[in-house]
Amino acid sequence: MARSTSSIDTLYELEKEIFKLQLKAKDIELHLDDSFDHLQDNFYKMGWNSIFRGRRRRKQKREEEEASYGTGFIQGLLGTESIQILLQQLVPLVANKISAGLERLMERWFGKK
């Protein structure tokens, strides 16, 4: 405990310093009680998190690495010139097939044009 910088010369100053220290001790006691109540209320959750936090972090890190690998692979694959040429030819064909299928579906639902 830190003592005030001035020396205590009288009985009044001594009683004043004792009173200050008692107030400080009471504040510390209340804070300790609040902390202990918080520990009692959240002990199970804090224990669970402290035990399984490492496993959860490792799993999350592994998932992020796998996602970045997959994204990098796909970007590399789509970045090649031959795949881009193939996609430029394939996309219009697929779009035509989808639009023809949607037109047949609309005719079936709403009747002939």
From TrEMBL:
It comes from the Bacteria. This is Uncharacterized protein.
